[in-house]
Amino acid sequence: MCSRPFRLLDEQFRDGELCHDCTRWEEDPDWQGFLQKNTSIFLYNDFLKEVMAKYKFRGDYVLAKVFADYFKEVTKGWEADLFVPIPLSEERLYERGFNQAEAILTEAGKMPTDILSRVHTEKQSKKSRLERIHLPQVFQIDSQTNLHGKKVILIDDIYTTGSTLRHAAKLLKQAGADTVWSITLAR
Amino acid sequence: MRFQIKDEKLIPQRFFTEDSYRITQIPEILQPPLNPDFPYSRELQQILAGKQLLLDDIPHPLDEIQSHYENGYITYRKGIDYIGKKPMCMRCGNKDQQLFAIFHCSRCGENCFYCRRCIMMGRISECTPLIGWNGPAPNITLPQKIMAWNGKLSEGQQVASDKVVEAIWQKKEWLVWAVCGAGKTEVLFAGIETALAAYKRICIATPRTDVVLELTPRLKEAFPEIRVASLYGGSTDRHLYAPLTIATTHQLLRFYQAFDAVILDEVDAFPYTVEESLQHAAIQARKPSSAMIYLTATPNEKWQRECRAGKRSFTTIPARFHRHPLPIPEFAWCGNWQKQLQKGRLPANVLRWIKDRLESGKQALVFFPHIPLMEKALPLLRKLDSRIEAVHAEDPERKEKVQKMRAKEVPLLLTTTILERGVTFPNIDVAVVGAEDLIFTESALVQIAGRAGRNKDYPDGVVTFFHFGKTDEMLKARKQIVTMNREGVKRGLIDI
């Protein structure tokens, strides 16, 4: 479900068709059913880590074009009403100069729909899974876009605990979205 | 970031406004006059003197930086400028249009060109100012005694050392062409001492981090009371202002008209020779009127030609510190060694050479042109002695293996060109297998040959180039070594 390569995962972390991590999410009544599936384009390894650092932290925008080609390949045949990039906080956006998820959409020729924004701005990567899950909603929906019956695809750079995407998915579903899928560069 | 122009000053704007510009679009950047009464920040002075930094590099808030600019202490320069219609990066000198890219920038709200060549040092785009210092230089107090080194120079070193002192005073360019093992570093000491005494700011730059790490303790020991900044990727000295800086050539990209003398060590080493940005960085880091000293054992062909034609000022140190001649490489044809290796064999003469060393217990370095072939040879040789090791650039255990070689726990070390320079083992023989390969240039071969006979107790060493057809580079390398020995004898620097 989270696009973790199953054959690389030890038996003890599997629960039938799902990995242990996804089971945990789906057993939690507060979170089950919001994110229908995630697709990650690459496995996070040392090489990708370096490329991502160059893209995200050094800000080498051109790499968005490279990623966009893979993005198009993977999303071929998907029918979606809206592509929604996970937003950055205002400070972070200024620091980086561009939103790395949105840039991939743009370069792939898809129209990004910016309906989400961040409520507050502490760095995610400094928190544990538990802290992330129990965070109050980190996003809010800004526009009046009608989400009823829509199929929405979220875009983010890395799937780590899945909490960012699930926070966003929950919000979109509660606002009426029919299905929410997500796609990330790395898992 | 954008700027408004108001009362002959630039006023920074965080976001897009109609009446503001990106710094690249401002025809002339106005510099307010220096206000001598302004209580400037000593910390900013330390961080910025002689530098060109991005806002993100500076830990101080923009307001503080702006007030220093308004009082004439800080300069804003364009990160990207246009030469005609083409962008150029003012930090790394990039003019190659393929190394620029464009993106929609949330800092200026426009489509913004940025330089990809130096992006590892932080992104420079059309809306990025380079921040520098225009106030007085930080005060330096000198100790009573600047230099603690009291070793003695060889005759050859002394001549070169005097020339370095002269070049620093007269702000000239000078090449010191010193054979491997001549003792290059000591040649610099007198020059550095007189420069420091005259409150000059000096930099020793080298393409390799290894060399920075090796030089730093030696210089700290020679100048114990002088503050030394040691700069490489990830170094903690990045904001340290020091009269003596030792840096990788990459780090010079952050300097602007900082040094009265730049000493470039191992100029012919990768990556300096192939990356234009580093050559640009070395020039930018010098003050407009300053000295430049080049140190190398192996200047490239162009430089050698210029030296012979009298177009480049230089001094040679043709002999080693221990007054013995350089070992002259022997050539030995070894047939199609690659094909033999594919079949799981080594050429007979190579094998003989190695067996001789193992039997007599003399350590040896054996160079290979490529990693896969070296790794083919390793198991074959381990049958002779299981302690034999192989290293290459990406080897995580590189340091440990070199250490084991030093401790004589390894009888024979196979290596790629990574160990061609910088490493010293006291008593070894050296072989190159496949010396005809393009990777073995004249300078690589001279450096490799220079690994043998370094120690005064073991001044002899055998150097053998096994080849499948002699190349010009091999011949040039041998000729260079023979010429140096001849000059050493003529100048009385070698005992016969």
TrEMBL record, chain B:
Residues 350-496 form the Helicase C-terminal domain. Signal peptide: none annotated. GO terms for molecular function: 3'-5' DNA helicase activity; ATP binding; DNA binding; hydrolase activity. Keywords: ATP-binding, DNA-binding, Helicase, Hydrolase, Nucleotide-binding. It comes from the Bacteria. SMART domains: DEXDc, HELICc. One of its GO terms (biological process) is double-strand break repair. Residues 165-317 form the Helicase ATP-binding domain. InterPro entries: Helicase/UvrB_N, Helicase_ATP-bd, Helicase_C-like, P-loop_NTPase. The keyword Amino-acid biosynthesis does not apply. This is DEAD/DEAH box helicase. It comes from Neobacillus rhizophilus.
